[in-house]
Amino acid sequence: MAAVEPVQRPGDPVLPIRWTRAQRVYGAWARHPAWSVALRGAVAAAIAWAVGLLMPEPFSDHPYFAPLGAVVTTTGTVVRSVRTAVQVTAAVLIGAAIARLVDLVLDPGMPAVALAVGAALVVSAWRALGSAGTWAVTSALFVLILGQADPEGYVGAYGGLVALGAAIGIVVNLLVPPLPLTPSELALDRLRDVLVDQLEAVADGLVLEVPPSSDEWPARQRSISPVLAQARDSVSDSREAARANRRARRYRTWAEAQRRRANALLEVADVVDDVVRLTAEWERRDRADVALGKALRPAAVVALHALAEALRSHDLDGADGEALERLEDATDELHQRVREVRARSEKDYFVAGAVVLEARRAQDALEVSGPGAGRSPGTA
Q1: The pLDDT of residue 214
Q2: pLDDT of 335-365, one tens digit each?
Q3: CATH number of this structure's domain 181-368
Q4: How many Cβ atoms from other residues are within 10 Å of residue 337's Cβ?
Q5: Is 144 within 8 Å of 158 (Cβ atoms)?
Q6: I need a surface site. Which of 76, 180, 232, 292 has the fewest CB within 10 A?
Q7: pLDDT, tens digit, for every residue of 57-83?
Q8: Which of 83, 245, 249 has the alpha carbon at shortest distance from 173?
Q9: 315 beta partners
Q10: Do residues 155 and 143 touch, judged by C-beta distance below 8 A?
Q11: Helix (H/G/I), strand (E/B), else coil: 318
């Protein structure tokens, strides 16, 4: 359940205090998708419990199974909830079948439990069941131990109510589908910020009269991989959430702008990784054949700072036009300096040329991503 947050733009009339407070509440709600997941799950579980109580026996004897199915299908996207419902129901039925087969050949006890759990664990690794495979183990144990009095009735109630609860969870997801665009935007902001910090750290290292040593460069390297992985996962979740989502059309402009922004930042992240690797390996004081040297380091520093500035300005509307122009000028200057130094030297300066190409690549990525359509008038 995501609320709509009006966007206050420059020149707009000042909103009433009570409305700005509502904005803050809505904004906090949108930034924390776990809250909407909890509310959807609670509502679905309550409905499933009530429906379970209204079912005929033996279903009404075990109404608590229905909320279990409801909860597991309200924690993901609409498409994922349908897939999860099918997997959970299949795992429950397979586990129940394993328990009944074991019960036919062994009396209740340690050997029966060991055989049922072992067989269910083998089945749980089946790729088609995905993360729902562990339900086969739970189902096998429940049916084997708790369903002795009425095996058929217990299996029917367990499997039927879990499937019923899962169906209720799917309906709740369809009525109030998640569309976590705001969390994805925040993840992209974090990725942008860590990339800017990394570029500036490398540029500061190149400003020194003598470049850092192989032992000093690691202190200037930032941990980008976890932030990059989180951004990728968050954007992937948003794209999946847009499928079969009745709210997706309303936020289509924003989603498309976010897709372009994500593609640009992922490309720039690859560029930054290459630049850090090249400079840390080839521009250090313990190498005789450095990549840049005193002749090229100043121009490289300007280019890296220009890239950081353009990246810092990058949002849903793309990067600032003036910042992109400064990046282009700085990259051209670095390219020209590489040509001049190469013409006066017997060295090929391949690594320096690679840095130029990486800067061009980042510039192209930032230009392609904007200026775009930007954010739609709301927050999901």
Answers
A1: 87
A2: 999 999 988 887 888 889 999 999 999 999 9
A3: 1.20.58
A4: 22
A5: no
A6: 232
A7: 888 888 888 888 888 888 777 777 788
A8: 245
A9: 318
A10: yes
A11: strand
